[in-house]
Specification:
Strand content: 15-25%
Number of helices: 6
InterPro entries: RpiB, RpiB_LacA_LacB, RpiB_LacA_LacB_sf
Family: Belongs to the LacAB/RpiB family.
Order of helices and strands: EHEHEHEHEHH
CATH superfamily: Sugar-phosphate isomerase, RpiB/LacA/LacB
Distance between the termini: 28 Å
CATH class: Alpha Beta
Radius of gyration: 14 Å
Largest sheet: 5 strands, parallel
Number of strands: 5
Helix content: 40-55%
Protein name: Ribose 5-phosphate isomerase B
GO biological process, one term: pentose-phosphate shunt, non-oxidative branch
Number of domains: 1
Keywords: Isomerase
Strand order of the largest sheet: 2-1-3-5-4
Length: about 140
């Protein structure tokens, strides 16, 4: 298992991001914070694009993005051909994102889920394996190349 995680988001996800970084580091993950670095209003694509490029270049196997709704960061991330970002707000979605879609970025809606649930979703996402098999053929058809 790759223990290098990329994390970023926007001002609405700033507090969750910082708390998740601490938790992940205590669990032995190497975490790179792509920002933002305060809760001042920012444009999330400025942080999402560098994070996704780093994943596409193989620096990180997985990433976590956090904004208010999770939608903005997920939409932006999914513009990258090598990214499969999944917006998750419950445990089943986090598991299925990995099992069936081989998602490599978890998008979280900080304004709509409590922090303890965000922690659970991150744990599920990072510890669930892709099932492959019939799902691999579908995943292979996602990118527009």
């Amino acid at each position: 298992m790759n223990r290098k995680i990329a994390i970023g988001g926007d001002h609405a996800g700033f507090e969750y991001k910082n708390d998740l970084i601490q938790k992940l580091r205590t669990e032995g993950y190497e975490v790179k914070d792509f920002g933002p670095f305060s809760d001042a209003s920012v444009d999330y694509p400025d942080y999402v694009h560098p994070l996704c490029k780093a994943i596409e270049q193989g620096e990180f196997a997985q990433g976590i993005l956090i904004c208010g709704s999770g939608n903005g960061v997920a939409i932006t991330a999914n513009k990258h051909q090598g990214i499969r970002a999944a917006l998750c707000w419950n445990e089943d979605l986090a598991a299925l994102a990995r099992q069936h879609n081989n998602a490599n970025v978890l998008a979280l809606p900080a304004r709509f889920i409590p922090f303890d649930l965000a922690e659970k979703l991150v744990s599920i996402f990072l510890n669930t394996e892709f099932e492959g098999g019939r799902h691999q053929n579908r995943v292979d058809k996602i990118a527009c190349r």
